[in-house]
């Protein structure tokens, strides 16, 4: 069974258990705990920012790749329209085969 006594020390109330130790954190312990919590929050924030940066870079890479493919397709279509019909079909087959290999 645990007895709780309330003592007044310098106008501050503290609860004490059977062994006389304070339930209240010492200032040093509280400061260390707060510093650790801040450090942990900062690390979590940095990890989140790094992940978001990676995602933005990946999106930018994919957008650039799509733009390049679109430009290549437009260039191929432009070149094909200048060629004769048999040559146009041959060129289209080459492009299709090229895209399959990628």
Low-confidence stretches: 1-5, 7-11
* Global geometry: rod-shaped
Report the mean per-residue pLDDT as an integer: 78
Helix content: over 70%
Order of helices and strands: EEHH
Please list the strands of the largest sheet in the order they lie side by side.
1-2
Structural class: mainly alpha
Helix count, DSSP H or I runs of 4 or more residues? 2
> Tally of extended strands?
2
- What is the radius of gyration computed over CA atoms, rounded to a whole number of angstroms? 35 Å
**Tally of separate domains:** 1
Distance between the termini: 75 Å
Question: Main sheet, how many strands, which sense, barrel?
Answer: 2 strands, antiparallel
Strand content: 5-15%
Can you walk through the features of this model?
Residues 1-38, 66-102 are annotated as: Disordered. There is one protein chain. The protein is mostly helical. The protein has one domain (26-101). 72% of the residues lie in helices and 10% in strands. The chain is built from 2 helices and 2 strands. The chain has helices at residues 27-82, 85-101, and strands at 5-9, 12-16. A two-stranded antiparallel sheet has the order 1-2. Helix 1 (27-82) packs antiparallel against helix 2 (85-101). The longest helix is centred in the middle third of the chain and has 56 residues, at 27-82. Residues 1-5 and 7-11 have low confidence and may be disordered.
